[in-house]
Amino acid sequence: MLRRAGLVSKASLRNVPSNTTFRRFASTKTLKETLQDIIPAKQEQLKRLKAEHGQTVVGDVKVENIVGGMRGLKAMLWDASVLDPDEGIRFHGLTIPDCQASLPSAPGGKEMTAESMLWLLLTGQVPSEAQTRVLSRELAEKGDLPPFVRKLIDSLPKSLHPMTQLGIGVAALNHDSAFQAAYEKGMKKTEYWTHALDDCIDLVAKLPAIAARIYRNVYHPNNQLPAINKDLDLVGNYSAMLGYGGNHNLTEYLRLYIAIHGDHEGGNASAHTAHLVGSTLSDPYISYAAALYALAGPLHGLANQEVLRWQLAMQKEIGDNVTYDKIREYIWKTLKSGQVIPGYGHGVLRNPDPRFMALQQFCDAQPELNSSPIIQMVKKTSEVAPDVLKEHGKTKNPYPNVDATSGCVLYHYGLTEFKYYTVIFGVSRALGCVTQLVWARALGLPLERPKSYSIDALQKLAKKDL
Ligand code: CMX
């Protein structure tokens, strides 16, 4: 059922760009037609910005930014979402609760679909239910893998990390890249975005089939993969291919998780990698394959598997009598052994992650999750850990991030193979990355090429300032 856009809070609407339209329920335009309408105005806006404000100073670059992983450096153009350190993520001005209230869900479900989030990210508009269904069907029709990609994935050793396999499968899709083929034929710059869009839609469509095939091959080799159902949404099909189609609550959880994890502005390692590689005019498939390998690091996407490993070890050590004191003790033990507390802290956020809160609310609403020992432990941990981390005094953000709970819900529902969890994140993060790849080509953004300095050069520069 489509929840009315009127539920969107007034506070959030104030921050929505003026070209954003929420009541598009009667529109029958396709995604490409909608983008065709929007792009000229955005191109003009960027042209004016460059001409009129090209010399405006946005901020200082300090040595600490350069040697500190570029934290806080305002240096990237990314339109689809903005991350406020205190408030968290907004997608074209909409908070997660706004999106939950306004984006169309799948038939029989309540959670927003991945395709409605993709539409919002790409266009800045809330799609109608009909538009979402048309996009779902397009994705389902494009979802099957070419035979050589199936064979390639099936040939990989089961012991190869699922994320490595995902990157290989995605990169191989560039065999049929519309962007690359058109580039070879000498397409005009004004045509870049349409071919990039074709590849991006095709990539999003095929990700579930690649991801599910890896899951089947590595963990359940005797299972048959069902055919893609043209009447289901992207995540409905993904869940069915994973073997969980009959579990409505898990499918709904996956819809929510994949939608809200889709974009987290541009500076995070996976999004930034897709943007950087795409700026060389690599096609969307290989640009996103590169992003997947950034996602595969334990400080980024792999954190959700690390959280589960850590919470299970905690559960094993504490036993059945879980108290706040015992959790506190276990957190200190982890910190004293020199390890980080997975699922806590963030490069930008300075408050609890609203994505964590949305997943937690989902758990609170499901009796079976509410009473699950692992979910109860995650909740209790989130009540204790911030104070311990504050006392520890290192992390700038002692609060839970999205990964603090995401994997544990999957575990509860029986999807216990935690090395696989980052693959689900990889299916999700494509939504934001492909959005930026399309817009970067539509806006004619140039090759990304920052200037680097050596330690000696920075020291010389600093002395000159004295
Ligand atoms: N537990 C213990 N120490 C932590 C910590 C945590 N959860 N988070 C940060 N710290 C430490 C850092 O290791 C750093 O220590 P050193 O000075 O000894 O190097 C210090 O606190 C300052 O770090 P920070 O500025 O607060 O955090 P960063 O921006 O450098 O790093 C992040 C951010 C996410 C990598 C870090 O908080 C972390 O390692 N968290 C645990 C892993 C995790 O949950 N990652 C998922 C993030 C979400 C995502 O990208 O998907």
CATH architecture of the domain at 133-300 and 419-443: Orthogonal Bundle
What overall form do the CA principal axes indicate? globular
Proportion in β-strands: under 5%
Helix-strand pattern? HHHEEHHHHHHHHHHHHHHHHHHH
Number of DSSP helical runs = 22
Enumerate the spans where pLDDT stays under 50 for 5 or more consecutive residues. Answer: 1-26
Q: Tell me the number of strands.
A: 2
What is the spatial order of strands in the main beta sheet? 1-2
Q: Which fold name is given in CATH as the topology of the domain at 133-300 and 419-443?
A: Citrate Synthase, domain 1
Largest sheet: 2 strands, antiparallel
Cofactors and ligands present? carboxymethyldethia coenzyme *A
Distance between the termini: 64 Å
Work out the helicity level: 55-70%
The CATH homologous superfamily of the domain at 133-300 and 419-443: Citrate Synthase, domain 1
Structural class: mainly alpha
CATH class of the domain at 133-300 and 419-443: Mainly Alpha
Radius of gyration using CA atoms only: 22 Å
The overall pLDDT average reads 93
